[in-house]
Every structure is written in C-alpha cells, then in structure tokens.
Amino acid sequence: MQIKATLDRIPGGMMVVPLLLAAILNTFAPDLLRIGNFTQALFVDGAGTLIALFLLCTGAQINFRNVGVSLGKGATLLTTKWIVGAAFGLLAYAFAGENGLWMGIAPIAIIAAMTNSNGGLYIAIVGQYGNKTDRAAYSLLALNDGPFFTMVALSIFGAMGFVDGMFSFQSFIAVLLPILVGMALGNLDSDMRDFLDKGSSMLIPFFAFALGMGIDFGKIIEGGLTGIILGLLTVFLTGTVSYFVFKAFKWNPIVGAAEGSTAGNAVATPAAIAAANASFASVADLATVQVAASTVTTAILLPLYIAFLVKRLEKKGVNLPGDFDGPSEKASYSAS
C-alpha cells in the first residue's frame, strides 16, 4: 500500500489530507481520540509540541549569515497582512449601516480575522514548499497573535484609543526560543544540523492532524454565510496580495500566500476589544462566531488555494522551493 506515494501526488498532501481527516473526525466523533494518555497527547493535544520541535529542527538549518533574510521575510509578511486587513476594515467601517455592520459582517471581525494568521498552517505549507529562511520567518509572524494588531488598527483610524498591555513580549520569546536553540545546535555542530534536518519533513503530517482536531465544521454553520465570506476574503485578499508582494521581491510567492488564514486565537479578539471599549460590546458576540467561521473556512480553503497556485507555477516550469534557494535568496523569477 503506497500511502506516501499517494500523498506526494496530492498537492500539499502531507498537510491537507491529515488535516481534513482530523477535521472530519473532530466534527462527527470528537471524543474518539480524546481518551487520554499517549493517544490524546499525540493526535489531539500535540500540535504545539510538534510545531515547536519542527521549529527547532528548522532553526538548526539556518546559518547565522542568513538570519537577516528570515527577518526580512517575516517583517514583509507581517506588514502586508496588517495593511490589507486594516485597510479593508476601515472600508467596512466607512460603509457600515446603522447597525454597525457591513454586508452583515462586523468590521472588528474583519480586522481580527485578516490581521491574524494561523502559524501552524503557515509552518505546514512552507515546510513542504518553502526553505529554511521561510520557516524561520515564523518567529516574527508570532507578533500578530492575539488582539494587539487589531487594537493598533482601530487606534490608527480613531475607532478607539490605543490599549496597553495586549502584547506579551514573553509570549514572543517563547515562540522564538526553539528556533534559537536549533540555530545554536546547527551552527555549533554540522552533524547535529544534518541529524535534525530529517525532522523537518517528518513532523508535518503529525502536527497537521493535531491541528485538524481543533477544527469543527459546525462553526461554519454557526457563523453563517457572513463568516464564510470573511474566510474567503482572508484567503483571497491577504493571501493573494502577499503572494504578489513576495513575487515582487523575487522570493517564493507560495510563502506569501501561506499567510492567507485566520488563527484560532483570533476568536477571542472581539471579546478582548469589547472588554477594553464597551462601544464594541453590541457586535462582539456576532464578531466572535464570524471569526470562528473564518478560522475553519481558511483552514480548509487555504491549502486548496495553495495547491492551485503550486500547480500554476509548476506548469510554468518553476521548481519549489529549489528555484528560490541560494545565498542571496534572489532566485530569478520571471513567470507571471
């Protein structure tokens, strides 16, 4: 039975198939694997640990002289996603009706969903289609976790005052540390670098499955059509804009598109904003279910969109990620 060969023939199969299988299982039989001990620890609760180990293995492949490239990519993705999300949220506020909604969507839901991204999904995608500097860029992308950048966006166009204390430097360091440990090991010992390199690809299907166990298709129904629309906007606006920004820098554009998602932690953002400013309380509950629906929608749709983009590039003769490797990270890219 050729399981690996079959998965390899499916674009993003090592990530998409385990994730969708787990999501189906979690939706219709959520308690099947929640039986405690090693089974639950690996297949349900293991995403954070497995991703942390993946980051450590990835960090070991980074040479100190290439750190600047990773930071540049991370800063570019972070800035692009925030600008798109904040700008679209501003338009939603401008055209909102008397009920404070635009096309039934709460503007704070738009900002919360679009300025945030699913780090696990990003890691899974670039683990298959990116290189080591693309993976290491995640250390900076951790900054968009939680409501901090949503608060910044709201403060910029005067919807509310800036709220302190919403960003935890400790949380940022906690994300960065596994990468730094891996970098130290890999740069101190080339044999350790080779040893840890094997873990990068091996871990992808396992943490993808664990991520899928956090997806409930019922959230799409609960959030309704507006939540699905928000998910579509997140994938096709933030993902596509980031794709072309990376293409303009002659970096791997698939890595840019990999940011077109909403993370599960963004579901808590509307409530956090309402707690900081009572004027948002009336739409906080609606915004919460819309962001939840966007989270599920993007988790399903983004891998499919990535598969489409990969096929498009392959038809143009682009080799992923090989055509974007190199000391300068400026591989020639002329395909339109």
Fill in the keyword field for this structure:
mainly alpha; 336 residues; 17 helices; Na+/H+ antiporter like fold; disordered C terminus
Q: What can be said about this structure in brief?
A:
The protein has helices at 3-9, 13-28, 37-43, 47-59, 67-94, 107-115, 119-129, 132-136, 138-141, 148-156, 169-188, 190-202, 204-212, 218-248, 253-257, 269-276, 281-315.
What does this structure look like?
With 336 residues, the protein is mainly α. It has a single domain (12-313), classed as Na+/H+ antiporter like fold (Up-down Bundle), CATH 1.20.1530. It contains 17 helices and no strands. Helix 6 packs across helix 14. The protein is globular, with a radius of gyration of 20 Å. 49% of the residues are buried. Mean pLDDT is 83; it is low at 159-166 and 328-336. InterPro entries: 2keto-3dGluconate_permease. This is 2-keto-3-deoxygluconate permease.
Mean pLDDT, all residues: 83
- CATH level 1 class label: Mainly Alpha
Uncertain segments are 159-166, 328-336
Distance between the termini: 39 Å
Fraction of residues in helices? 55-70%
When the domains are counted, the total is: 1
CATH architecture: Up-down Bundle
Taken from the alpha-carbon principal axes, the silhouette is globular
**Content of β-strand:** under 5%
> Helical element count?
17
The helix/strand series, from N terminus to C terminus, equals: HHHHHHHHHHHHHHHHH
Structural class of the helix and strand makeup?
mainly alpha
Q: What is Rg?
A: 20 Å
Number of strands: 0
CATH topology (level 3) name:
Na+/H+ antiporter like fold
Query: Main beta sheet: strand number and arrangement?
Result: none
